[in-house]
Amino acid sequence: MAALPIATNQYFDVNFQRPGVKLLPNEFFVTSDDMVLATVLGSCVAACLHDRTAGIGGMNHFMLPDDGGDPSAAASDSMRYGAYAMEVLINELIKGGARRERLEAKVFGGAAVLANMTTLNVGDRNSEFVGRYLALERIPVVAEDLRGAHPRKVVFFARSGQVMVKKLKLQQEPSVTEREQAALEAARARRHEPVTGHVELFGAAAAQAAGPASSVRSRVQLFGAPAVASAPRTERFAASPGQAPTGRGIPTSEEA
Predict the structure, then answer these.
(1) Shortest CA distance to 105 belongs to which of 50, 46, 158?
(2) Which residues does the annotation mark as catalytic?
(3) Assigned CATH for 9-236
């Protein structure tokens, strides 16, 4: 069996004064250490899952919602698809000591950053997929920042579950354009292909008899705003003052 595509680009984050890992598309990372997991998203989606009791968290970064399904495909190829990427992330968290019934999710990305992506709606499809998947698995989504027209930088503190998000302009991250073109081509190539196969969840209970998951979302807080004494919150990097909140109670932060 091919090795799973665990992110290996480790660094020391001078802003947060702790070790970090940068996730590229098709990668994931799970840890109980006090680390930051960072990625940049266009139409891709990153799910941040966290077990507060166990103090363990993980992030993935997938490009397309469809299940890769090909048993002969390398794990790194299958990880581009949300169905595989989500199952792998849940598996590895449980193996690391998390309990499925304690997992909470925060999800980000799904932007339409290229004008010619509106036909296939890759970002919308990714956003819809991650919501449906987590509802089926009865994992509550406690914060989200999805869709829109801007890339995002997401930083996830794996031990605490805190997340920070920064909206970017496309020219700030030229690599996003290349990745978006690749995602668009992959979506076109698979548009009429059948979907087969799946990955069995590690220690998963049967989901068919379960009801829908909680859909309560926490408000995403501005960076520097007063802390709310409840669940871990999502914050903004240096959000511009005076901007009006838009969409699902989450303020946008379009920065230079």
Answers:
(1) 50
(2) 44
(3) 3.30.1330.200
pLDDT digit string, tens, across residues 220-236: 443 333 333 334 444 55
Task: Tell me, letter by letter, the H, E, C secondary structure of 184-244.
Answer: HHHHHHCCCCCCCCCCCCCCCCCCCCCCCCCCCCCCCECCCCCCCCCCCCEEECCCCCCCC
Residue from 81, 94, 97 nearest 137 by CA: 94
Beta bridge mates, 49: 58, 105
> Residue 79 has what pLDDT?
74
Sheet of 104-109, strands arranged across? 28-31, 56-60, 45-51, 104-109, 141-146
Give the Cα separation of 181 and 185 in Å (integer). 6
pTM (predicted TM-score): 0.71
SS3 state at 245:
strand
Residues counted in the chain: 256
Tokens of 166: 């920064």
Domain boundaries, given as residue ranges, for the chain: 9-236
**Could you tell me where the DSSP H helices lie in 58-214?**
75-78, 82-95, 122-136, 174-189
